[in-house]
Amino acid sequence: MPDNSAEIAIDIAVDSDQWQDIEAFEELAQKTSAIVTSWLEEREGIKFPQVPMELSVLLTDDASIKEINSKWRRQDKATNVLSFPTKELDVGETPLPLLGDVIFAYETILREAEELTKSFEEHLTHLFIHGFLHLLGYDHINDTDAEQMERIETGILLSIGLSDPYEN
């Protein structure tokens, strides 16, 4: 974990038996959140609170995430990751210490990893970065914002030896 990274406490809730190795997820989440905050501080000039931050994570399945997606985003389908920031931020704005919630759906992530011929862990790492960036105001609604978010995701992934998810 980078020495200069912001401190983040990650609270993990699990409501699906498909998520077997919670300790491995917790390690991935801690490591990845430290890498993301360091990257953003060093390369994007983002300032993080000088107090410990908190992130809530729900590890669930397709049925549950479909319900959440339908209720909160009016999209009646399962998805890989959903992010709900505590406060909507502009890119570059200092986040509140309570960052928000990120929800991951096991079956969708597994299916996509297989389709992409990537390991589950590599794809999950990408989605963790993606979901975390959403909490910090990054989005992909328009082409300019999508290019910025993809550039950051790709840079972070390449810096830790993982592939560019947008290569093709």
Account of the protein in words:
The protein is built from 5 helices and 4 strands, in the order βαβαββααα. The protein is globular. It has helices at 22-44, 62-73, 106-115, 120-135, 143-159, and strands at 8-14, 53-60, 81-85, 98-105. A 4-stranded mixed sheet has the order 1-2-4-3, with helices on both faces. It has a single domain (8-159), classed as Metalloproteases ("zincins"), catalytic domain (Collagenase (Catalytic Domain), 3-Layer(aba) Sandwich), CATH 3.40.390. β1 (8-14), α1 and β2 (53-60) form a beta-alpha-beta unit.
Task: Give a brief description.
This protein is an alpha/beta fold and 168 residues long. It has helices spanning 22-44, 62-73, 106-115, 120-135, 143-159, and strands at residues 8-14, 53-60, 81-85, 98-105. Helix content is 46%, strand content 17%.
Task: From the structure above, extract its key features.
168 residues; Collagenase (Catalytic Domain); 4-stranded mixed beta sheet
Q: Which CATH C-level class is it?
A: Alpha Beta
Strand order of the largest sheet: 1-2-4-3
Principal-axes shape call:
globular
Distance between the termini: 30 Å
What low-confidence regions span 5 or more consecutive residues with pLDDT below 50?
none
Average residue-wise pLDDT: 95
Q: What's the architecture, going by CATH? A: 3-Layer(aba) Sandwich
Helix count, DSSP H or I runs of 4 or more residues:
5
| CATH fold assignment | Collagenase (Catalytic Domain)
Number of discrete domains: 1
Structural class: alpha/beta
Helix content: 40-55%
SSE ordering: EHEHEEHHH
